[in-house]
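Posting here for the record, re: fe (ii) ion.
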Amino acid sequence: MDKYVTGAVIRKLREKKKMTQEELAGKLFVSSKAVSKWETGQGFPDVSLIEPLAKALDISVIELLSGEDIRNINRSANMARGKFYVCPVCGNVIQTAGEAVVSCCGITLPPLESEECDPRHQIKVETVEDEYYVTVDHVMTKDHYISFLAAVSDQGVQFIKLYPEGPCEARFRIACVRKMYAYCNRHGLFKIAV
Ligand SMILES: [Fe+2]
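Prediction output follows.
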């Protein structure tokens, strides 16, 4: 089995908690020599220690496994400041109200970083009565297409999944929309404020 956590991660998290090797060892009922061995790569904590180790380091198990301390600093959990995650394996799309550790198909997904629209990815917005009619003049082939359009307000997300060979358009209720996003499967996430 591969190591589920590296010594460097254990040391980093332990030092962040301002704990000595002895203190961490005491919490796990192991010797400080064992902790020292883990941190220097000469040993490896038993799988049964995953949960106690995560608890002692004040981190979730998935954070421990991903080797990162990911905390949501978006305490008000405002959807407009949320993140999109796209699985490169199955195409799943996940939207969160803040930072999160998101995994799909066995991999941890990084949050998408949105860019301003470029000339090849222009989100066009027309107002039609109480709706925004949104289009992107972009190819819609199997290899290269706009995979979703989304309109985000503080309260929620209107999300339209698009498909190759299909139309690249969506209609969103105008109410409270602050930003719109278009995700190109090759070029990433583009945004405009409205
Ligand atoms: Fe593109």
